[in-house]
Amino acid sequence: MPDATPAQHLSASDRGLPKRTGSARSTKSHESVAVLGAHPYGSLQLVQPGELPPPDEGSDEEEEAGSPPPLEPITSLDGQRRVQFSDDPPEIRYREPSLSGSCETLDTITHSLAGGQGADVLLVLDLPEYYLVGCDTMSFTARQFRGVRDIPPGPHFFWVTHPESGAVRTGFFIMAYGAQQVHVLQWDKFHETISEPSRAEARFQAEGLDTFHHLLVPYNDPSLINSELDKRDGFTQTTLNRKSKMWKRLAGSITQRVLVRVIGQHITSWHVDTTDRVQGALHVAAEMELDRRLPKHYLQSKELRFSFPQNAKTYTADVVGADRTLAATDATSYMMSVMNDGNKALSDDDVVAELQLAFIIGVHLGNHACIQQWWHMVLKLVLKAFLLPELRPVLAAKLLYCLAAQLEYSARWLDETILDPNEPNSNELRLALIIYKRRLDEVLEGLGDQATKEQLTVGTAFAKIESEVVGLGWELDGDYLRKGKVMMEDGEEVDVEMAELQAEDERGEWAPEVVELDEHGRQRDLVSWHD
Q: Cα(151)–Cα(286) distance, rounded to whole angstroms?
């Protein structure tokens, strides 16, 4: 009988073991361990041999009835660490914010750092260096961005992009409730976007928050941490206070309920990108060609679901005659019907929040679809709802105040204003404001002394818009030039007649009416001195 080969001379393959490679990383570790029993991910701890907890004392009957068979005793490994399951959960407190009408969410991770004063913390993992970071109304280039601390309650919007490829941006909304919540997100290197890490990773990062909390960017003053901030941005206390007040005007109506309905269901954050689409939007020829050529999975985008789609009509086929004409020219009845829909049940703040969402995503991420949605809501709904100041004055005032804040932010706070003089939408906005002012004056004059405080507030809100467009050279209450001469570049003068407000001029006592003519082409029912 031949001698047995010593076990120490057997190769790895002969012993049934995997061959050793140059890489120590296991490519199957994340797939081979799907679950860890009753212990969640993140509950493993490294302990010394002397730190092992004593075994639980219990009766043999209980062990036989409910406990699995004991494992083999652990061999003593002097001087080495071992991995052990921890029966104690991580020292992280969990809370679930109580929101009326909110969606079902997982427990949130909170911190208990001294001096937190109820402020939330945002952690962004693995973000490359020297990325451009946006935080509400502020933006700065951070050498190493870990996150933001001291976040006050309310909605907040963050976005990141590489300085050399600023055309494509990715962002996300979070909701702070003053419960010292820790929001953990992670940079996805493959898709170059922000995503949510595993719950285990989020818990692990929250456990070590006290070790790097001082390295996070303060929400109220980013210049305290990052010395490389552009000083031209003017991070003075006065400017920071103005930025905080402006953000409340821009996003004060956004709630978790609105974010879930428009963007979609998420756990603690709601993600948007430059390439996201809007459901019901009118696509241009280039977008239709792109959809035809590229498969759906090549486009890392999703559709945002606003309550007022661009392809919807403001009237229904059930209405005929003068009522249909009124519905086609006045968006008040359409807006109220959408708000009263049982599937939506929109409040006044919900409508204002959708106008705020479209503007914020559009101007901060350069999202063309959201910019078009904003123009649709402004030109086709807000400034076309002529009866809204009388029927729903609170909603009308909120929408006008919101529009005034957006026009101010676009003109004074952004590098590129949304009101491009060469764009046709800007000219339509000017005409829409002129018409809306006339109709608003008619409504308030018709109410007279019967006008309520809320209805008078609508006039005050529109005055804010008037003050913002003065810088553009727009006079909404002045005489409108219908006909005149224009000098061309070669010095030639030509006659020009503007017919943009012809329909508005032919209203009221100047409106055309249908009359009956006789066989001679003369109007009937008139007194004639010749017959």
A: 41
